[in-house]
Amino acid sequence: MEASTQPRQTCYRHPDRETGVSCSNCGRPICPECMTSTSVGMRCPECARQTTKVRVGQGAFSPTAGKMPATIALIAINVIVFLVELAGGGAGQFSSGGSVIHDAGLRGPDIANGDWWRVISGGFLHAGFLHLLFNMYVLYVAGSILEPAIGTPRFLGIYFVSLVAGSLGALIVDPNTVTVGASGAIFGLMAAVIVVARGRGIEQVAQQFGVFIVLNLVLTFAIPGISVGGHIGGLIGGTIAALLVIFVERRMSGRPGFTLELAGILLIFAATFAGALAVAG
Residue range 168-176: average pLDDT? Predict the structure, then answer.
């Protein structure tokens, strides 16, 4: 929470409602009911009519609120990589290993020896069909809500920050164990849904995902073999990246704000990636 001595803005259509969000096109303050999610930020009803058809208010966080090309593409990539794992002798089970997991799974000593790509590639491998199925289901749910709400570039930025932050967390906790899975990235997306929903005044969505994260954290600590560091790291990374989006969104609209958000996300990604390499080394 931030303290401010300046009076808060009120929605231009509902003067009795305070808000910290402004239209990314005209700059007028808008409340959650008047918000329209577009690929370049939130817009007021009038400016939204000049763009593509979208939903407003809580509809901006509906699974049918807009297209989600990155979500679908990420799911497709993970499924294809899993099929490659099977072809490489993995048999769909982590215990069997397989050449793909052996060559691309996250492991500190291998990264220290120059396999830097493992920081990212480990997040696209899975230890079995159920592991893949659960992760892709949550990716679809979180992505269908978050990507239409903040736009594909921001969504991808948060995803990869969370993925690398999950790798960093896994390396900190247990650098010598091979770790695979998109769970770090997905925990980051769930955290981002909460941050963005709360930042835009949609508490119902934030509360629902808060319960979902708590349940998943209970499973993380209760079930042996799950990467606690990977899940916590992804959760932290997604939270930080989403907070940056909301912070800039409240203070700068239009293309300058969008550019600043992406630059900040890229900086967080680079710093986290460098941290993972340093920990592995």
Answer: 94
Q: Taking each helix axis as running N to C, give the angle between helix 152-173 and helix 254-280, from 0 to 180 degrees, rounded to the nearest 10.
A: 20
| CA–CA gap between residue 101 and residue 83 (Å, rounded) | 12
Q: What are the φ and ψ backbone dihedral angles of 147, each rounded to 5 degrees?
A: -60, -45
The pLDDT of residue 51 is above 70: no
Mean pLDDT, rounded, for 45-67 = 53
Confirm if 118 and 106 have CB atoms less than 8 A apart: yes
- Which structure tokens are listed for 114? 């120059």
Name the average pLDDT for the chain: 84
Q: Which residues pair with 179 in a beta bridge?
A: 106
**Cβ proximity of 121 and 85 under 8 Å:** no
Side-chain-side CA neighbours of residue 127 (13 Å): 13
Active-site annotation, residues: 183, 231
Q: State the Cα angle at 103 between 99 and 104, rounded to 5°.
A: 115
Q: How far apart are CA 156 and CA 134, in angstroms?
A: 20
Average pLDDT for residues 110-127, to the nearest whole number? Answer: 95
Chain segment 60-71, per-residue pLDDT in tens: 554 444 589 999
Structural tokens at position 41:
């930020």
* Nearest alpha-carbon partner for 160 in 36, 216, 83, 77: 77
Kindly state the tokens that stand for 113.
Answer: 């020896």
Token couple for 26: 């005209």
- Identify the bridge partners of residue 10 per DSSP, sorted by sequence position: 18
